[in-house]
Design goal:
- This protein is 27% helix and 30% strand.
- The protein has two domains: 114 residues, CBS-domain (Roll), CATH 3.10.580; 228 residues, Spore Coat Polysaccharide Biosynthesis Protein SpsA, Chain A.
- By secondary structure, the chain is of the alpha/beta class.
Length: 353
């Protein structure tokens, strides 16, 4: 009985005041795993909601983590009354593609939260996930001299195993590993994936083909959009959320996850118009979106790849744009490590402890 009560009260973790910062909202979403923030007044009245999608859309508009959540919240969210039946709530969620709906009384006092995962359980996805695991990891030498980078341990498990387990928890069951350097060691370790309750197939590169080149063999073999990730990207990114985001943008053929990177210029900058000085900026901060190494691709994407041709993922996206295909970004705020250097590998190990 105590366990049941504790579970029913979990929604209280989603409560924040309108004066809370966006950084606090991100932390709350991460801790509660409920994909929604309920913005409430001092007397527990629902003012609005903030979802993961609201935050990502705000990031594209250059919101700051210190900004208040009131700047991005939905003031007219879909709500339910305590009297609504479970079957009606389920239909409401499915018809609106919502994963969470607040429960309020007639005066808008918060009484609870309906969660889709609690009603129907975790969603099993038919989409395949492709993991690019063929790189040599030369910047991690000597650790990769006799061990492929995807098998380097993070907190006692190969980094690739962390990715597979996380994706399985999010409903993915079908995986394709693209291997080359010391690929037989990866294949020996993971085999067909049955040990983890998943299915693994392999693309065996004869020579390095880049982060997209080996995907050409999948032409005409895919029915659904696929997740593609580099095997050395360790992140708290939600693969299911990324896939849903891509699906919501129906005109997009490919989605690239990006992470905001802030760079402070080491010098004062002089702004000019011809020979005239028009202003100064003292060590300005430059905001850049960097490629986070996780993508969603529609099956048609693979028609733009030639057999056995070297091609990296940015080149594929450029090729798609040149053919007037719509490509979009998915801004991520989650913890993210690109294990490319010894320092990054050490940092990732420390963060997993």
């Amino acid at each position: 009985m105590k366990e049941k009560k504790r579970k029913s009260d979990n929604w209280r973790k989603t409560l924040l005041s309108p004066g809370a910062s966006i950084k606090e909202a991100i932390e709350s979403l991460s801790q509660s795993s409920m994909q929604i923030i309920l913005v409430v007044s001092n007397d527990n009245l629902l003012i609005g909601t903030v979802t993961d999608g609201d935050i990502r859309r705000g990031m594209l508009k250059d919101i700051q983590l210190t900004d208040k959540i009131s700047s991005i919240m939905n003031l007219d969210p879909l709500i339910s009354s305590p009297e609504m039946s479970g079957s009606f709530i389920l239909k409401l969620m499915q018809s609106n593609s919502f994963s969470a709906i607040p429960i309020v009384d007639e005066f808008k006092h918060i009484k609870g939260l309906h969660l889709l995962n609690e009603i129907i359980g975790p969603q099993v996805r038919p989409n395949q996930m492709i993991i690019m695991a063929g790189g040599k990891g030369t910047r991690l030498l000597p650790k990769t001299e006799n061990c492929p980078k995807p098998l380097l341990p993070l907190n006692g498990k190969p980094m690739l195993e962390h990715i597979l387990i996380k994706a399985k928890e999010q409903g993915f069951r079908n995986f394709i590993l693209s291997i080359n350097y010391l690929g037989e060691m990866i294949e020996d370790y993971f085999s067909d994936g049955s040990k983890w309750g998943i299915s693994i197939e392999y693309i065996r590169e004869k020579s390095p083909l880049g982060t997209a080149g080996s995907l050409s063999v999948l032409k005409r073999k895919l029915k659904y959009p696929v997740i593609v990730t580099n095997a050395d990207v360790i992140s708290d990114i939600g693969y299911g959320k990324l896939l849903d985001y891509h699906t919501e943008h129906q005109n997009s053929i490919a989605t690239m996850s990006v992470r905001l990177h802030k760079f402070q210029h080491p010098f004062g900058v002089v702004n000019t118009d011809g020979v005239n000085i028009v202003g100064f900026e003292e060590k300005p901060v430059i905001n850049l979106n960097i490629n986070a190494g996780v993508y969603v691709l529609e099956p048609e994407t693979f028609n733009f790849l030639e057999d056995e041709e070297y091609c990296d993922m940015p080149s594929l996206f450029i090729r798609l744009k040149e053919n007037n295909m719509s490509t979009i970004v998915y801004p991520i705020h989650e913890t993210w490590h690109d294990i490319g250097r010894i320092e990054e590998y050490i940092n990732a190990n420390e963060s997993k402890e």
